[in-house]
Write a structure and sequence with these properties.
heterodimer; A: about 270 residues; mainly alpha; MetI-like fold; 11 helices; about 75% helix; about 0% strand; disordered C terminus; B: about 325 residues; Rossmann fold; eight-stranded mixed β-sheet; four-stranded antiparallel β-sheet
């Protein structure tokens, strides 16, 4: 469970950022511009003399909240539409899946860039837009799970008992379909974080002076020959976060399937 | 004449097969072709046939788990084949299936209590521990299993739980699809005895689907022999074993292993292939494997003929051929 460890550490660091940060992430001190890592500034300072460690910690909060909120939105949409399509089939399924095809045809990054230009680059918009553009894969996954689970005998048994469709979907099928969905969602968090970093890197994400890993990286690239620590810190952070969520996704698969977990009694 | 609990009139189920070719010729698999059946209240009917003959599909049609393509299902006087939504859900408690794979028929995320409490609650019956324990005891399970999950139960226990779930709604009809074929022989006997007991206690009407004539013979009053979507012979169990009339039934009965050491048995082993249920040829479905066939069989669509009271045979040469 290395993945879970990394993710938990990252979440804790973000939650406790105000306590842990040695400096105000916005406080400038031009006499201390581009200082290399030292005892007083563990990760050095940036071009305005701000403490990189503090900015990294605060930036982490942004990354994580973008990851969670965006994936939360796409889970909500993806599960609802996928469940309806997979369970009911027929023309409902056709309608939803063709909509998915259409959405998939639109280049995501282009769509996001356009929406941000229209709606303005702020944190809320970015989270919602990433969420609204990344549900297609989840809905396909949920639909596929529902299609196969719907044929299982225990679902047939529930139908035969006269259990209402709504309860069959949420109580009987969904919990058994969630394992792959959660796994995909953890990968989705990694993707959303990457996307946010990319947008911030392009200057269309979180706007300075609010720190995010993406915009720290952007400013860092201008000084890459003089101040390697400015690009290395966010780079490694993004790398570790994505790795952490991917490992977590793998780990979750083992835990979420009761038949695969060991140590249980088989009569 | 006792009242009929269930009547099937010309019931059938087709599946469209999607072909991958560009020029699509529509392929239709006729799983159940045209079945007429009647079951009297309190009776047990066995449905036997080879794998793929449509007996499971017929069971699902009766339980309304599949939509019939044609025909009528009349359950205690009321047509149920076109019920939908809420009205269908409300009548479902009167007929319940028992499945072949006991583990697969139980939700892996629900424990025994949850599995049985749900239907009780649906029927507005008390769904507390005591109610569930009473239900468990009625199928010979103890209260210690209450919080076990399906995979922590043995195969026999799983099937008993499946039966308990079916009984939880006080159904009048149980459709058991190969309920013992995935169990050990010793446990098969226990489960079959349980069915017999329950049937007597609760005066249930039951349909047993099986490929195993021996299982059926122990259990049911009447046997229907199915072949490629059609019923070939329908007779009281004793009659079917002692006085079978259809060449396919002869072959089935002769295929049963018998303990008669040293005696060579005359066996009419079936030759030829089972005809495909996809776009079947007109005429008797058993035509391709029947050694008594003649020209008339090609025009005969296996309509059931009355042989004697309660004994129907789908062979146009009935009575004219001998084993």
């Amino acid at each position: 469970m290395i993945g879970a460890g990394i993710v938990i550490v990252l979440i804790l660091l973000s939650l406790t950022a105000p306590v842990l940060s040695p400096y105000d992430p916005q406080a400038q001190d031009l006499s201390l511009r581009l200082q290399p890592p030292s005892a007083s500034h563990w990760l050095g300072t940036d071009e305005y003399g701000r403490d990189v460690l503090s900015r990294m910690l605060y930036g982490g909060r942004i990354s994580l909240s973008v990851g969670f909120v965006a994936v939360g939105i796409s889970l909500l949409i993806g599960i609802m539409l996928g469940a309806i399509a997979g369970y009911f089939g027929g023309w409902v399924d056709q309608l939803i899946m063709r909509t998915v095809d259409v959405v998939l045809c639109i280049p995501t990054l282009f769509l996001i860039l356009m929406l941000i230009v229209f709606l303005g680059p702020n944190l809320f918009n970015i989270m919602v837009i990433i969420g609204l553009t990344s549900w297609t894969e989840l809905s396909r996954l949920v639909r596929a799970e529902f299609l196969s689970l719907r044929q299982r005998d225990y679902i047939q048994a529930a139908r035969a008992l006269g259990v209402p469709d709504f309860i069959i979907i949420f109580k009987h099928i969904l919990p058994n379909a969630l394992a792959p969905v959660f796994i995909s969602a953890t990968f989705g968090i990694a993707g959303a974080i990457l996307l946010e970093s990319g947008l911030s890197f392009l200057g269309l994400g979180v706007q300075p002076p609010t720190p995010s890993w993406g915009n720290i990286l952007t400013t860092g690239k201008d000084y890459i020959t003089q101040a390697w620590w400015l690009t290395l810190s966010p780079g490694i952070s993004i790398f570790l976060t994505v790795l952490g969520y991917n490992l977590l996704g793998d780990g979750l698969r083992d835990v979420l399937d009761p038949r695969l977990s060991g140590g249980e009694e088989h009569a | 004449m006792a009242d009929k609990l269930l009547k099937l009139k010309g019931i059938g189920k087709d599946y469209a097969i999607k072909s991958k070719e560009v020029m699509r010729t529509k392929q239709i698999l006729i799983a159940v072709d045209h079945v007429d059946l009647e079951i009297t209240k309190g009776q047990t009917l066995g449905l036997v046939g080879e794998s793929g003959c449509g007996k499971s599909t017929l069971g699902k049609l009766i339980c309304r788990l599949e939509e019939p393509s044609r025909g009528e299902i009349i359950f205690s006087g009321r047509p149920i084949h076109d019920l939908k939504g809420k009205s269908l859900r409300q009548i479902r408690n009167r007929f319940q299936p028992v499945f072949q794979d006991p583990l697969g028929s139980l939700n892996p995320r629900l424990n025994v209590f949850q599995t049985l409490a749900e239907p009780l609650r649906l029927k507005n019956k008390p769904a507390d521990q005591n109610a569930v324990i009473t239900l468990l005891q009625s199928v010979g399970l103890g209260p210690e299993l209450l919080y076990r999950y399906a995979h922590q139960l043995s195969g026999g226990q799983q099937q008993r739980l499946g039966i308990a779930r079916a009984l939880s709604l006080d159904p009048e009809l149980i459709v058991a699809d190969e309920p013992v074929s995935s169990l050990d022989v010793s446990i098969q006997a226990q489960i079959l005895n349980l069915f017999l007991e329950l049937q007597k206690q609760l005066s249930l009407t039951m349909i047993f689907i099986s490929h195993d004539l021996r299982v059926i013979s122990q259990l049911v009053d009447q046997v229907a022999v199915m072949y490629v979507g059609r019923i070939m012979e329908l007779a009281p169990t004793q009659e079917l074993f002692t006085n079978p009339q259809h060449p396919y039934t002869w072959a089935l009965l002769e295929a049963l292993p018998k303990l008669e050491p040293g005696r060579k048995r005359k066996r009419s082993i079936l030759t030829g292939d089972i005809p495909s249920p996809i776009n079947p040829a007109p005429g008797c479905h058993f035509y391709s494997r029947c050694k008594y066939r003649d020209a008339g069989c090609e025009k005969y669509e296996n309509a059931l003929w009355q042989h004697s009271e309660n004994h129907q045979v789908a062979c146009q040469k009935m009575g004219k051929i001998k084993k």
